[in-house]
Design goal:
mainly alpha; 2 strands; elongated; CFAP91; cytoplasm; Cilia- and flagella-associated protein 91
Length: 261
């Protein structure tokens, strides 16, 4: 019912598949030795490309076995002709492999370029969006400034249109006191009014509050009922019940009185 965990798991300790030692008898060439260059992860397990290589090795071995012996000039010429044909065939196969590799590389380059172009397009789009947002904010701020200036100019034009001919108007005192934004209630500093200079103008100045004689006279006018208070002590509550026991509140009052003393 208990499980154990070793220091090394089987998956971590597993290496390449074991290849036992072998002995080749003289005069024999096993076909499996042609795959000695393939290792696990590099050609094994065999795929379509490896199977094509194995078929080509078999064809080459069959071709080598079919070569004529070099015992006569005709056989030598025939052998050279077959070898030249095989060499041209191998060069053609090699060129085909190079074309396949180049096509694969081109596809990889295309994907990399496409990915780089997509990333660059995203960066350009983000940069353009940020610039557009900044231009929009600047445009909105400019529009608000134009609207404020427009409102200011309209108010000036409206105020100016009330007196187109520039005639002198007689002062209307009732109108000034009726308008709380007039010079009567809110005079401007440029007309010579400085409110800080007369800051104590609105302060309360009273004879009875600012002088000792006034305070004495104010105390004399106050009736005795206000200065001499009479407080009646409250009657003690009944702390004893009808049966003669002391209530809990009464006991608490006694304890508090003792603590106060």
């Amino acid at each position: 019912t208990l499980g154990t965990q070793t220091d090394y798991r089987d998956g971590e300790a597993q290496t390449d598949p074991y290849s036992p030692e072998y002995i080749v008898h003289s005069g024999s060439v096993p076909e499996i030795l042609t795959l000695a260059t393939l290792t696990w992860g590099r050609g094994l397990p065999a795929g379509q490309a490896e199977m094509e290589i194995i078929d080509r090795i078999r064809e080459k071995r069959a071709w080598e076995a079919a070569l004529p012996p070099m015992d006569s000039p005709s056989n030598i010429a025939k052998r050279l002709k077959m070898m030249e044909a095989m060499e041209r065939k191998e060069w053609a196969y090699r060129e085909e492999e190079i074309d396949k590799l180049q096509k694969i590389q081109l596809e990889v380059f295309k994907k990399l370029l496409q990915r780089r172009e997509e990333n660059q397009n995203e960066l350009d789009a983000m940069r353009l969006y940020n610039q557009w947002q900044n231009h929009q904010k600047a445009k909105e701020e400019k529009i608000r400034k134009i609207q404020r200036d427009c409102a200011l100019m309209l108010r000036k034009l409206i105020a100016k249109s009330k007196n187109l001919m520039g005639k002198l108007e007689r002062r209307d005192i009732i109108k000034e006191y009726n308008d709380f934004s007039s010079q009567t209630y809110a005079p401007l500093s440029r007309t010579g009014f400085f409110p800080d200079n007369n800051s104590d103008y609105y302060a309360v100045k009273n004879f009875y509050l600012n002088t000792f004689a006034g305070l004495c006279e104010l105390e004399k006018s106050v009736p005795d009922a206000i200065s001499q208070l009479k407080i009646k002590a409250p009657k003690p509550k009944c702390t004893i019940t009808k049966t003669g026991y002391i209530k809990k509140s009464g006991r608490l009052d006694a304890v508090l009185a003792q603590v106060h003393q």
